[in-house]
Structure formats: C-alpha cells, structure tokens
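Q: I have 245 residues here and want to know how they pack in 3D. Can you give me a structure?
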Amino acid sequence: MATHRGMELGCDEQGHKECCEVYVKKVRAIVFGLLNDEVMSTDTEGSREFISNAQSMLRQMQSPLTKECHFLEWLFGRMKKIVGEPPEKLQRKEMWSQFHKLRSSDDFFQEWKCYLEQIMGISAKSVFFQLITAELFEQLLHDTYCCENAAPEDNDEARLTYEEENAIRYMAGYVVRNLQRKMADEVEMLIETDKKRIQESNSTDWINIIDRGGLIHVTDECYQLFLAIEHATCQELRTQDWRHG
C-alpha cells in the first residue's frame, strides 16, 4: 500500500495522526452501529459470521493506530474525492456511479482484504466490508451536504402553504376517526371539543367549511404532532434524494 496518503486529504504531517484518529472513530462507530442493528439479531450463519468479524475488528482497532492509517487514509481519500465537489457540479447519479465504480474495483478488494487479513487478522467475505463501506459513504454524504440544511422552521423549502396546513389538519382528523373505531378511550384526548378553539387557526378553515357534523376536529397538540411528522418525512426524503441518484 502506498505511503503518505494522508497528504491527499489535506492532512499535513503534524495533523496526520489526528486525521487517522478521526477515521478510526468513524469506522468504529459504523461497525458498532451495524453490530447492534436489529437485523443482526436473527440467528443465521451470515449474521453470526458478521457479528464475529465485527467484534474482532472492534477489539483490534483499540490497538495503536499506525498499522491501519494507510488503508483508512486511502479509503476516505477516495470517497472524499467523490463527494467533495459542490452538488451543482457533480450530479447525484454521477456521484453514486463513481462510488460503485470504486467499490467494484480490484484495488478496493485488494486493499480491504489486505487490511482485514494482515492487520485485523480477519478472514471475511466481501459483503462484510462492502456493507461497512456503504455506511461510511452515506455518512460522508450526510456530513457533507445534509447537515448544511437549515432547521425546518428556517428552511423555505420546508415551510408549508396555507393549503397544505389545512390538508394536514383534515388528514389528522381522518386518522383519529379511524383510530376511534378501535380505541375510543385512548384517542379521546386528541379530539377538540371547545368550539371556540376550533375557529382560532387558519389551518381550520377548510375543515370548518366542509364539515357537516361528521368530521373530527383534532386538538392543536395533535395537529402539531402531524406537522412534526410531515417535516420529518420531508427532511428524510430530501436526505434520501441525495443518497440515491
């Protein structure tokens, strides 16, 4: 493996060790997260093998960092080159195309195999390091682009229109009505019974106009819950949009 790969990433000699420590922490966090994923709780040969290799890898990565630095600098250097361009210059499809080209290359397999077998003392199938690499790449994408988004309340893209606010309140009432048929007592607290409060918000205009006595009017607390779900869903969809071209 080539030496001084840290220079590719903007790490000078003084910051070489610090860069490596950051990479080790990132890899450990990914491996630990995968190890504790509920999918790994299934008792299959594949999951048992993955758990064994992941545990061995975590134990080995507690040792001095110098042995693994060159490989991690190579891996992160290649991935950073892929995601390092501004999004308007590098389209999502091209970004993922470059990543898939990287992880299907001979160099990729050789570097990982050498790292796992010679440094970690692990003999693992390619699915093991492919999964780790995919998680690392998605985390790098998230750190590079998604975290730059403003919070939903400050993001113009996340602000709801008057029509959308009314539609969400109507949808909330529809969901509560369906729940009411199965658990009337539990959802009673979600239903607004104060007629004055029903008229207070602009988001009640639509439901007030079309209500002929059979619609459910939800409380403001319930409505805020559905707004939070809407914002979280939109944020996740924007994240997914970056992940998949």
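Q: Anything worth noting?
A: The CA atoms of residues 15 and 42 lie 42 Å apart. Confidence is low (pLDDT under 50) at residues 1-10, 147-157.
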